[in-house]
Design brief:
Oligomer: heterodimer
Shape of chain A: globular
Number of strands of chain A: 4
Strand content of chain A: under 5%
Strand order of the largest sheet of chain B: 6-7-8-3-9-10
Number of domains of chain B: 3
Distance between the termini of chain A: 35 Å
Helix content of chain B: 25-40%
CATH superfamily of the largest domain in chain B: P-loop containing nucleotide triphosphate hydrolases
Radius of gyration of chain A: 23 Å
CATH topology of the largest domain in chain B: Rossmann fold
Helix content of chain A: over 70%
Order of helices and strands of chain A: HHHHHHHHEEEEHHHHHHHH
Strand order of the largest sheet of chain A: 1-4
Largest sheet of chain B: 6 strands, mixed
Structural class of chain A: mainly alpha
Number of domains of chain A: 1
Shape of chain B: globular
CATH topology of chain A: ABC transporter involved in vitamin B12 uptake, BtuC
Number of helices of chain B: 17
CATH class of the largest domain in chain B: Alpha Beta
Radius of gyration of chain B: 24 Å
Number of helices of chain A: 16
Structural class of chain B: alpha/beta
Chain lengths: 346, 507
């Protein structure tokens, strides 16, 4: 029980419950299965990118370019599938290839030239996104391949009919959850996963134990690229159009969600479950504000406040724990079998 | 013993013509070194003698210059990288321990095993078994799920040792292993090393506490200024001889006998100072020119008391007087304005900005006193001041612009000292000032402290080493369980007496 209270995830969960109660008391539509499934669907895009960001943060790095990578993967993949045809499998395969390659470039730059990750990825973001705009002239794609349309409609389960349409667990939610499970297993039960924590904890120690720090870094950024690319396709599935400027600008929201979930910008710390909760908290704040009819312009303010409160409280708590190393200053140690109570009685 | 890997007389490692140069400084000059299978060997030398560099070459972290010959188990080994070394069964426990602060004790111990295991999958059950077995080997128990960043230095050391023991080790190298350990823990460690020897595993110690290591070492190799002075059977060596080989001179311990000036008020006077869970009823005083030592086992509340005086751990009860005036010190800023300086034990993390230059660290505390009329920093005065302290404290550094993290432990400690001496304090508190540094640097740090006291500064030295407080202080206070139990007058006490007293109160 005490362990539970030492975990960051517990606090995020408490905040989520608190918000849920407040929002529900204003608008009963919040706490419905339909709304929940809808949130899980529309936030799968943010959630998938968050998985990648989590990996980068654990390794002690940061990536700003992932939104640009997601856009490129989305745009180029849709163009390819429109040109040569193919199924969703081809689409995901192309997207993953593009995303992994662009991410790996980040990783290689960071490892080879020892440029700080934030500088590297700001630069590559500009290069990637700039090139996309130059080449496409910022044109939107309205007519997606047919497979995008039919795939997006797949859902599992049917929970009733409202306004004439059935609702269930969307295919994109399923993709998100599968990725969450895969990421959790990778982080917890594989050597690669543990090496990411090791590198984030202490790079020099990791090198000394025999981890290939360079490989870990390249993997982490390539993984980030891959997640971004998948998120890009999910975005296309969700909105059924491709706009070169619709994703870029969302980077900080995603990073905020991951940090909300307990990952540390200093590296070495973070869990998949925490990240999921962080994304959901963000989703609930945004959705709740809409349901409570608060103007959307307040959204950023609230997100900022929630980040400060949640992360601040958790850090403060940790600091208190560290400084309270107790020393036994009793006159003499109680001998075995004699408790303080029996001493008082005698 | 049929599984014995060759006789005890065969060389496990032999190195010849080892040269290494760092930006103009010759770290190793044609050094030759060898260690037999199952031998317990000691590598001794002062700061900058090249012993750390030699270890880095053995462990494959650094490569020697061309012409080097390295043989492992009779086979030429060529250029070693760190993976080669590990494969040959060479494990190093560095002074910084190379642990992962964000991971659990269990995972830290099982980490080497994880890196070298054939499967990609991690078995937490196996990790648990490995950790428990390693701890059993040296007879300690630390909660396995505790995060390493929350452990004390002593426990971290034990975790690092446990990790090294999880591999098929042929040569275990320990860089200053005994510094953060209590006597009991050191004894346990040394008995482990003797155990390992029986299994044919060699141990190379790099330690400044030569007396402890000598109980078990067979040969001692001494380096001075990158040159090998010799390799001696330890039975032929005593403290004096080894010190002579290491430094080229013999130092005489001069007890501190300057009488403090008790005519006025004490610099510091504590009356019934208490802090819940830290210490209780502490009453003591320090006069100008007096050096007071505080000793006791790890966890006796000494450090917590020091932090309270320095404003980092405000006490719950009691009064504190500076120069006879009652004061309340809740922040470091107040402490500094009252003329208190504090050099922490964990100098690496608490006392220095490691990435900044030596110069910037030295003047960090006094920058606000070096302003021009227009309130800008007076660069010339800063440069003069840096040059003065680097010279006075004999800080060995290629340039004052080098980052502090590139210095050896002893030199880093001197930078911390310089930083605080520059504030011209009235009361100077030093927490284990010479942990992990060698005899020569230690003596020079003691000289600096005595010199300061002779000029009228009140000094408190906290140390595990009884000899250190006994020979540098006027009085020695023994703390246990957050209380001051007894006071010894240095000129009337001896080491054994104090040691016995502490052990009789140990739990």
């Amino acid at each position: 029980m005490r362990k539970l209270f030492q975990r960051h995830e517990t606090y995020v969960l408490v905040i989520i419950l608190l918000f849920s109660v407040i929002i529900t008391s204003v608008n009963h539509n919040f706490l419905t299965l339909e709304n929940a499934l809808d949130l899980l669907k529309s936030y799968s895009f943010t959630g998938i990118m968050a998985i990648g960001v989590l990996f980068v943060l654990i390794s002690g790095g940061i990536d700003i370019s992932f939104a640009a990578v997601a856009t490129i993967a989305e745009y180029v993949t849709v163009l390819i599938v429109l040109r040569i045809g193919g199924s969703m499998i081809t689409a995901f395969a192309f997207a993953v290839l593009i995303g992994a390659a662009l991410g790996a470039v980040n990783g290689l730059l960071i490892y080879r030239f020892k440029i700080p990750p934030i500088i590297t990825t700001i630069a590559t973001m500009n290069v990637y996104y700039g090139l996309l705009i130059v080449i496409t002239r910022g044109k939107w794609i309205y007519a997606l391949p047919d497979c995008f349309r039919s795939f997006a409609e797949i859902r599992v389960g049917s929970f009733g009919v409202q306004d004439g349409s059935a609702f269930g667990v969307s295919v994109v939610t399923i993709i998100w959850f599968l990725l969450l499970i895969a990421a959790a297993v990778l982080l917890r039960y594989t050597r690669l996963g543990r090496s990411i924590y090791a590198v984030g904890g202490d790079k020099i120690s990791a090198e000394r134990v025999g981890f290939r720090v360079g490989r870990v870094q390249v993997f982490v950024y390539a993984f980030m690229g891959t997640m971004a690319a998948i998120a890009g396709i999910v975005q296309a599935l969700l909105v059924q159009t491709v706009a070169p400027n619709s994703i870029v600008g969302k980077e900080l929201d995603v990073i905020a969600a991951v940090v909300l979930g307990g990952a540390s910008l200093a590296g070495g710390v973070g869990t998949v479950f925490g990240t999921f909760l962080g994304v959901m908290l963000l989703a609930i704040v945004q959705n709740g504000m809409t349901l409570m009819k608060v103007s959307a312009v307040w959204y950023d303010v609230f997100v900022g406040l929630v980040v400060i409160l949640s992360v601040g409280f958790s850090s403060y708590k940790q600091k208190k724990q560290q400084s309270s190393s107790k020393i036994d200053i009793r006159e003499s140690a109680p001998s075995a079998g004699v408790s303080a109570d029996t001493l008082q009685e005698s | 013993m049929k599984s014995k890997r060759g006789s005890m007389d065969t060389l496990f490692l032999s190195m010849r013509h080892i040269n290494k140069q760092y930006t103009g400084v010759k770290a190793l000059d044609d050094v030759e070194f060898s260690i037999r299978e199952g031998e317990i060997h000691c590598l001794a030398g002062t700061n900058g003698s090249g012993k750390s560099t030699l270890v880095k070459i053995i462990s494959g972290v650094e490569q020697p210059e061309a012409g080097a010959q390295i043989e492992i188990a009779g086979e030429p080994a060529g250029q070693l990288n760190s993976m080669d070394s590990i494969r040959h069964g060479i494990e190093v426990i560095y002074q910084d321990l190379s642990l992962f602060p964000n991971l659990s004790v269990q995972e830290n111990i099982a980490m080497s095993e994880l890196v070298s295991s054939k499967t990609q999958w991690v078995s937490w059950k196996k990790a648990h078994t490995i950790a428990v077995e390693a701890m059993d080997k040296i007879g300690v128990s630390i909660p396995l799920d505790q995060t390493v960043s929350r452990l004390s230095m002593a426990d971290r050391q034990l975790v690092a040792i446990c990790r090294a023991l999880t591999k098929d080790v042929r040569l275990l190298i320990m860089d200053e292993p005994t510094t953060a350990l209590t006597k009991k823990e050191v004894d346990a460690l040394l008995s482990v090393v003797v155990d390992l020897k029986k299994k044919g595993i060699a141990t190379l110690f790099i330690s400044h506490k030569l007396n402890e290591v000598m109980q078990v070492a067979e040969r001692v190799t001494v380096l001075r200024d990158g040159v090998k002075i010799g390799c001696y059977p330890s039975s032929e060596l005593d403290d004096k001889k080894i010190e002579y080989y290491m430094t080229g001179t013999t130092t005489v311990y001069t007890p501190y006998h300057v009488m403090p000036d008790t005519s006025g008020a004490p610099v510091l006077e504590l009356d019934g100072l208490s802090k819940e869970g830290n210490f209780k009823d502490i009453s003591m005083s320090v006069y100008p020119g007096e050096i007071v030592g505080i000793t006791g086992l790890l966890g006796s509340g000494r450090t917590e008391l020091a932090l309270s005086i320095f404003g980092l751990n405000p006490p719950d009860e009691g009064t504190m007087r500076i120069d006879g005036e009652p004061v309340v010190i809740d922040t470091v800023k107040q402490a500094v304005s009252h003329g208190i300086a504090y050099v922490p034990e964990n100098r690496l993390v608490e006392g220095l900005v490691l990435d900044q230059s030596v110069g910037k660290n030295v003047v960090m505390t006094v920058l606000d006193r070096m302003l021009t009329a227009s309130k800008c920093i007076d660069v010339q005065q800063v440069d003069r001041s840096i040059a003065r302290w680097v010279r006075e404290l004999k800080i060995k550094v290629p340039s004052v612009d080098s980052a502090v993290k590139t210095l050896s432990g002893g030199n880093q400690q001197r930078v911390v000292l310089a930083k605080w001496i520059a504030t011209e304090p009235k009361l100077f508190i030093l927490d284990n000032p010479t942990v992990g540094i060698d005899i020569a640097a230690k003596t020079s740090i003691h000289e600096v402290i005595k010199h300061l006291a002779a000029e009228g500064v009140g000094v408190i030295i906290i140390s595990d080493e009884i000899a250190e407080v006994l020979y540098t202080c006027n009085r020695v206070l023994v703390m246990n369980r957050g209380r001051i139990l007894k006071q010894f007058i240095s000129s009337e006490a001896n080491e054994e007496e104090i040691q016995r007293y502490i052990e009789s109160h140990a739990v």
